[in-house]
Amino acid sequence: MSVSILENQRNAVLDTFGQKIDELKAGELYREFLPVGHLAADRGHTGYRGRKVQVWCSNDYLGMSQHPEVIQAQIDSTGRHGTGTGGSRNIAGTSTAHVELEDRLAAWHGKERALVFSSGYVANFETLSTLISAIDGLVVFSDSLNHRSLIEGIVRSGAKKHVFAHNDMADLESKLALYEADRPKLIVFESVYSMDGDTSPVSAVFDLAEKYNALTFLDETHSIGVRGPLGAGLSAEIDDHRATFVQGVFGKAIGTVGGYVAGPDTALDYVRSFAPGFIFTTALPQAAMDATLRSLRLVQEGDALRAELAAKTELMKAELRSRGIDFIDADSHLVPVMVPGGERVRRVSRQLLEEHDIYVQPINFPSVARGGERFRVTVAPFRTPEQIANFADAMQKCLQEN
């Protein structure tokens, strides 16, 4: 076969990707990535094309990524230890800060052990896929609105699974009842669901787990730092610590990078020993772990921050409500503003950015159902009443014009 024919075949294969991207764009599903430069000296703002823009969709719920003490902790640690670890956790990558952080996380959640991963996604995927695969005959019960990282971990394991209707305890129980008491079972769910901002009936899930002899894996990603007396999540807020495993992240309310799982010692030692995504990846830098330790202390002492976050969230809801702006009034710090239509939500987002120096990222299918497009608005504690009112005014104007 001639070289030119082979080259044409290779190009035809590569053209497949362009065709798939064109399909995304035609279906209004193509994702835009906005290049920004967050400004530590001006919290809640980012640089964009020479302008200073307010960010209203950040997962940095408490503004800890720009807290002076957290920044200084990372700077000081970088000066002492350098910018990277140079190896995986088992090859020179386990710093003293990793060990201290894992000990503190375990104590925070009242568990025997904690294990730090490079991200929350990796923590979920690697822990679930590794643990589930190790237990013969285990059946998984997964909430229908679980995060992709949870879903992928379950699917990767190859275990038998049931998806129960979101927060529907009757549906969950009907599926649990299909199996004998001694059949291994695992219920996987979240405490706060990020797209609607609603919370799960945590204690009711634990009750069913006890009744049907099931383990539980609770993803506290969106409640870590912002719920509970020490910021340990929704389960801590309701003083119900029966979760077998608790997952959390640093990249949201803690303001740094990484994720973790806390739970039984031997189970997490097994994950540490067998999870490929833990074993065969470079460990997070010690400087990042030292910054996380400093942030964790501030968050644990941050009752005033959590109260301010709740107050500012309620103020935002009041401002939106007074202007007739449609939003989901959920029991969390997340405020989903509903803007149905893939193209419409993008137009509103562009107008807010270009005319009002406000950045909110449009959320559309498959993250939410078609027709459920929205902005997921977050209101950090440092936001002023004037900024909140100005945001609502700008949102009202752009919605009316689109």
From TrEMBL:
Biological process (GO), any one: tetrapyrrole biosynthetic process
Superkingdom of the source species: Bacteria
Keyword Transferase applies: yes
Known catalytic reactions: 6-carboxyhexanoyl-[ACP] + L-alanine + H(+) = (8S)-8-amino-7-oxononanoate + holo-[ACP] + CO2
Keywords: Acyltransferase, Transferase
All residue ranges annotated as the Aminotransferase class I/classII large domain in the record: 53-394
Names of required cofactors: pyridoxal 5'-phosphate
A GO molecular function held by the record: pyridoxal phosphate binding
Gene3D superfamilies referenced in this protein's UniProt entry, alphabetically: Aspartate Aminotransferase, domain 1, Type I PLP-dependent aspartate aminotransferase-like (Major domain)
Pfam family, one: Aminotran_1_2
InterPro entries, alphabetized: 4pyrrol_synth_NH2levulA_synth, Aminotransferase_I/II_large, AON_synthase_class-II, PyrdxlP-dep_Trfase, PyrdxlP-dep_Trfase_major, PyrdxlP-dep_Trfase_small
Enzyme Commission numbers on file: 2.3.1.47
Stated family: Belongs to the class-II pyridoxal-phosphate-dependent aminotransferase family.
Protein name as annotated: 8-amino-7-oxononanoate synthase
Naturally occurring in which organism (per UniProt): Kitasatospora indigofera
